[in-house]
Amino acid sequence: MVWGARLWAATALVALVAAGAIAAAVRTPGPEHVASSLTDSHGRSLVQHGFSTAGSAKSSPDGLPDFTEDDLDAEHTDMGTNFVRFLISWRMVEPSPGVYDEGYLDDVAERVSWYAERGYHVMLDMHQDLWSMAITPDGAHGNGAPEWATYMDGLPVADHDMWELYYLEPGVMRAFDNFWNTTGKHPELQDHYAKAWQHVAERFADEDAVVAYDLMNEPYGGTMQGPRFEAGPLTELYQTTIDAIRQVDADTWACLEPQAMGFNWGLPSGLGFVDDPRAGQPRIAFCPHLYPLPMDLGDGYTGASKQLVDATIDAWAGNVLRTAEALGDVPVILGEFGLNTTLDGALDYVDAVYDMAATTGMGVAYWSRDDGSWGPYESDGTERNLVTALNRAYPRAVAGEITEWSSGEGELTLTMIPDADATASTEIYLPAEEFPNGPEVDGAVIEAWLPDSGILTVNVPAKGADPVTVTVTAA
Ligand code: 9MR
Prior knowledge:
The protein is 32% helix and 18% strand. The strands form three sheets. It has an eight-stranded parallel sheet. It is globular. By secondary structure, it is of the alpha/beta class. It has two domains: 390 residues, Glycosidases (TIM Barrel, Alpha-Beta Barrel), CATH 3.20.20; 83 residues, Sandwich (Immunoglobulin-like), CATH 2.60.40. The structure holds ligand 9MR. Ligand 9MR binds next to loops.
């Protein structure tokens, strides 16, 4: 890594730790668990377990990931996933102003149908990094927005080794400033964005498998940073976009991300409240990303780096729960975390994040379902070490409210307040190899155990409004 980047990163780390210490000293304790969950058509609380699929879609000519139906079968069998954060892009949805590419949406719909047939839930993620492919002539760096929506006003974009550093280039910052209309020159761009989402929502409104829309990947404010950006233009864009979506789709959840820079490292968010105009309960969720700086910079999860990462995870979880509360006790999906799993201690980090997500009640989409060092498979399909780490017991759909859950090798504990009027049973995924003689259950009645799919179905009798603890162990 370039020396300048290390120095910059080290300085940022010191600032982060200092900020964390001050914040911890002045804050009152926040919530310890999310207050609500996404629910299915039976009202069951859902726990998301899956991938962001996939980075390969970012710059492919057809905007689709390098991912087949067989690839989906493989992850379903190997890791019992039930969820996907599927990457889409504005450049593909609206290739020229006001013109929508139905052929692209057909292709996305075909992929969605693969997931739907296997009982998955899908979150469509309007992805971007560094605004768009048009930030450099060779199209090799950014992705997301269409070329026609990229106004750099002739400002330069120099080369970097680390992709994130392109965010600091004047041309890239100006492209964002023009989108957020900080420049006052392009008020039309955000309307296009909201209408592009409306078009996507119109297409998927009746597709039950699509449960959420992740409105913008890793928002970045250009020259406007921090709470001013989040409480200002970002909150406004979310409101405009949700208003546009609700004209055509009343039910799909809208997932909000904070500004990525800072928040992903453990700093708080200044995102404002967004009103959901749908009739009934709001369907807004919070979908932040977690990339502790030492891991982002390629360190392992050992020694001093591990200590910093653990402190970051703690601070991050506290900030997430506070923001989710401020947004109206909304559910949380950790939309991205991931790393090169050849690093020292990588799988311990993966375990630590999944344990935190279980304890706090967040769903998880691992970044990413690409082949190679960050993903579950090599390009020839060989399983990587990540597969074992992600093949974990978890409650897939819970007929009631989840109070707390945790799992380890060959065991799962779920505390829930059963819904006395439930119309469907509670489903738990168990890695079949950890339960060679099947599961033994305390606190619930086994209805079915399907070792081929690893799905255990149980009936959990209600005890008034009291929590009930279900424990699953290997028989
Ligand atoms: O892992 C991705 C890397 O290969 C790309 O060069 C980079 C730029 O497109 O994006 C990385 O993925 C990032 C994702 O798009 C947004 N969140 C952070 C991810 C990891 O850096």
